[in-house]
Each structure stands twice: as structure tokens, then as C-alpha cells.
Design brief:
Layout lengths: L1 H10 L3 E4 L4 E4 L5 H15 L10 E6 L2 E6 L5 E3 L6 H41 L2 H25 L2 H49 L5 H14 L6 H10 L9 H13 L3 H14 L6 H11 L5 H8 L13 H10 L1 H19 L1
Antiparallel strand pairs: 1-2, 3-4, 4-5
């Protein structure tokens, strides 16, 4: 309905949309090229994130203002409120809230009625005869419990404690299984995406940077991973411990440039992935940072921003604080070199 309305506002034509049949009608004679051009314009204005240009936004409406909230980079930007489509979006939002409120009210009313009916049935069942039966049954249980206690001493107590322990053990085992499955889901999805990417590279040795970046993006989306996980898939797929001898950074730097697209947030995730890659051999970390910088896959400002911070949301759990500190110390010569180069550039400008 929203896309149909956008066509109507742009073309100045009447539109109708039937949600039951999912059929849209735009009055007038319009070519496919015109409609396709309008679709691209709609996506650019109301779907893509203005900050990272990824289609991972959702509307956040506050005080009759519509914002783009991006799940990829976290930015929150206001849409073009001067566009006529905004009136339709706000109207639909109010309508949806009203319907949800009405439905919630109806559900509460039904719940209240059900509780009242259950209570009525319970009162009906609680007749004198039923009460007498329950009382007799309770008395029989009490007598049996007393006899059992007399014959077996603390047998009942031991049995109860035993059952309680078994229940706790079973519950703990069940929780461990759930936790294990949750961990396997995330790690397994990443592992499968990396394996598929490695296989693709092995089968297509002459693949272009753009095509490989697209393959990695498709693997991330198919695995239901977060947008920034593309960087982690790339690092684990193309870098090996022999990265320096094999010139892997120089070879695959264009792929990383395609993936990060100059976005500082994605570049911070790249640095975090390089930290995790260098856990076993911290001395590799400054070499990687310098090579990625030389190949224009990492910006100077991003590296210096990382250097000025401690542990943050970008740092992976696998990188403990002690390891992070070691990696930061190893990277100090590169950081100092960048700072001095930046200072020299400022001096030249002053002169």
C-alpha cells in the first residue's frame, strides 16, 4: 500500500490497493521505465539508510515525525517530512495503533469473561458432596502418609529429597542443552558461511572484488547474521597465518573496501575482526593494520579513533582484556607514526 501511494503522489494519479488480494492499481498510462525509476526513488528515500546505504531500516515515529532507525549502523535519521507520502505513513501508523488498542481491549474483555466463567464453574463444582469427597480423600492420604512414616522412618523424606535433586539436575541439564544450542546456532551459522565462501574462492580463483564482496554479503544474509558480520566472514575466509608471505592483504583489500564502503563503523568492525585474528600471534596485528591502511581499506581517522578508546562494543568476547591490551601495545608504533604524519601535514599547511 505504501509503495502504491508513493506512485500516486509522484505521478499525481489516483491509486487503490486491496490488502486481501494484494492487488494495486495506479490510474493513468505509465511506462515500465517510469514506474521502475519511481521504485528506485522510493527505495532511496524511504528504505535505504542515509548513513550506510543499507536496506536495514525501520520506521520510528515520534511526535508526528518519521525517523529511519538502521539495524546495521545504528543511526537514526529523519526522513524527508515534506514528502506527501509522510502524511499517509502517519495515518497508517495511527490506524494500526488504534486497531491494536481495540484488539487488546477486546482480548482483555474476553479474558475477564473467561475468568468469570471458570470461577462460576468452580463454584458450581464445589458442592457439599464434592467437598465431602475431597475431605475424605485428604484424610486417607494423611493416614497413609502417617503409616508409611511409622514403617519406613525417614524413607519418605529421603525419597522426597532424592526426587528434588533429580528434578534440579534435569532442569540444569535442560538449561545446558538450551545454552549449548544457542551457542551452536550463532557459531555454526558463521562457520558455514566461512566454509561456503572459502569453497567459492577455491572454485573461482580469478573472481573479481565486487563479485566476491557480493558472495560474502549473500552468505551473511542467508545465514541470518548481522550486517557487520560480513567483515568477520571476509577476514576468516581470506586471511591465513601466512598472510604476509602470500600477499593476502594486498590481494583482497579491494574486497574489504567494497564491503566497508568507507563507512567508519564497518571499519571499526574490521579492526575488531583483525584483533580476534591476531590472538595467537599479537605481533601480526600492527602489520595487518599498516597493510590495510596502505591499501586504503582502513582510514587514518578510524585507526586513531580505535587507538584512543579502550574496550568497547566493537571488541569481540573472544578478545579478553589482557589480550586487547597486548594488541594495543603492539600497534603503538603504527599509531605514533600516523600521529606524527598527521602533525607534519598540519605544519606544512601552516607554512
Amino acid at each position: 500500500g505504501e509503495v502504491t501511494k508513493f506512485f500516486g503522489t509522484e505521478l499525481g494519479a489516483q491509486t487503490t490497493y486491496n490488502p486481501d488480494t494484494d492487488r494495486a492499481v495506479v490510474n493513468g498510462a505509465h511506462t515500465d521505465d517510469t514506474l521502475q525509476d519511481l521504485m528506485h526513488r522510493y527505495i532511496e528515500k524511504f528504505v535505504l539508510c542515509p548513513n550506510c546505504s543499507l536496506p536495514e531500516t525501520e520506521y520510528k515515529i515520534k511526535n508526528d515525525c518519521i525517523y529511519h532507525k538502521c539495524a546495521a549502523c545504528g543511526s537514526k535519521d529523519m526522513v524527508d517530512m515534506s514528502h506527501k507520502l509522510c502524511t499517509y505513513i502517519l495515518a497508517q501508523d495511527k490506524k494500526a495503533k488504534k486497531e491494536a488498542k481495540s484488539k487488546d481491549k477486546k482480548n482483555k474483555k474476553d479474558d475477564k469473561k473467561n475468568k468469570k466463567d471458570k470461577k462460576k464453574d468452580k463454584d458450581k463444582d464445589g458442592s457439599d458432596e464434592e467437598k465431602k469427597k475431597k475431605k475424605d480423600k485428604k484424610k486417607d492420604k494423611k493416614d497413609k502418609k502417617k503409616d508409611k512414616k511409622d514403617k519406613g522412618g525417614n524413607y519418605l523424606e529421603e525419597a522426597m529429597f532424592g526426587k528434588k535433586d533429580d528434578g534440579l539436575d534435569a532442569e540444569a541439564d535442560e538449561q545446558d542443552d538450551v545454552d549449548s544450542e544457542a551457542g551452536v546456532d550463532d557459531e555454526g551459522a558463521m562457520r558455514l558461511a566461512v566454509e561456503a565462501t572459502k569453497k567459492y574462492i577455491a572454485d573461482n580463483s580469478d573472481v573479481s572484488a565486487a563479485d566476491l564482496a557480493e558472495v560474502i554479503t549473500n552468505q551473511q544474509m542467508a545465514s541470518a547474521l548481522k550486517s557487520h558480520d560480513k567483515v568477520h566472514i571476509a577476514v576468516q575466509s581470506v586471511l591465513t597465518p601466512q598472510f604476509f608471505k602470500q600477499n593476502e592483504v594486498e590481494k583482497y583489500a579491494p574486497v574489504f573496501s567494497e564491503i566497508t564502503n568507507g563507512n567508519s563503523i564497518m571499519e571499526r568492525h574490521l579492526i575488531a575482526a583483525l584483533e580476534a585474528f591476531s590472538i595467537e600471534k599479537p605481533k601480526s596485528f600492527p602489520v595487518l593494520i599498516k597493510q590495510f591502511y596502505d591499501e586504503d581499506a582502513l582510514e587514518e581517522d578510524t585507526i586513531l579513533e580505535w587507538a584512543g578508546e579502550g574496550r568497547n562494543d566493537y571488541t569481540l568476547e573472544s578478545v579478553d582484556e589482557e589480550t586487547r591490551a597486548v594488541l594495543r601495545a603492539e600497534a603503538e608504533p603504527v599509531v605514533v607514526w600516523l600521529q606524527e604524519a598527521d602533525s607534519d601535514d598540519e605544519d606544512d599547511e601552516d607554512d
